[in-house]
Amino acid sequence: MQRFLDLTNDLAFKKIFSYKSTLIAFLNTILDLKGEFAIASIEYISSEEVPVSLEEKKRAIMDVRCITKNGIYFIVEMQNSASHAFLKRAQFYVASTYVNQLDKGKAKNHTELTSVVLIAIMGETVFEDDPAYISHHKTVNVKTGVNHLADMSYVFVELPKFKKKKEECTDLQDQWIYTFQNATDEEEIPFKNNDVLQEVYEHLERSQWSAEEYQDYLSVKLRIDEEAIKRKDEFEAGEAKGKKEMILTMLSNGATIDTVVELTGITENEIKSYMNTD
Length: 278
Prior knowledge:
Blueprint: H1 10-16, H2 20-30, E1 42-44, H3 54-59, E2 63-68, E3 73-79, H4 86-103, E4 116-122, E5 134-139, E6 149-158, H5 172-182, H6 195-204, H7 211-252, H8 257-264, H9 268-275
Parallel strand pairs: 3-4, 4-6
Antiparallel strand pairs: 1-2, 2-3, 5-6
């Protein structure tokens, strides 16, 4: 039996970051906020103030939204699988939270609107062309790179890109990401020099969860696994369709089966199987 549960599980994520001190420590670390710029306090936003999409109503996606003492809104989300529309949804979240300040009386007019930052911890790679596992995105002048439109920004933590071993995680930022990625593999609490991370592992201990909580955790895990299998099946089906179309196009353009084999590496039997299907 695993000693520690998976922090990327929606239920575990929600439970761990229900502790304000933990969430503050995480935000300061991921955003590299120090000294006078560090977050000192936060206020959780009630569910009534959160814009909810139809997809969320069906799937109950877990995330944490909060506002700091100086008025900055943070959306912290764990996203195990990124749909093709995820980046659109991320921008919808930020824009809705930004404008929603007027509807909820947080701002009297548009000049009082405060900044919104989305931090998305991703179980899948989103930006294939960028090797960095933490990326910051803002609206900038394309010629100068200056960020004048600073009220809406995004931070993506792409867990699959993180390749460091435990002993290589010498700074707190890497230790946090390692915990997201590898907590279930640990038999003892690592990084004991950090009190916050030690508490995170203590809260993730299977023995600290009631039977009912653990069953809910397993239900969420099953849903995540089912989604991953579905996405894999859809990808393989699309890949097979594309391969078939390529083969039939080559043959219709006069290529022989031997030529197709030579150029693609696909076996003769597989080529013939595609030729014999509608």
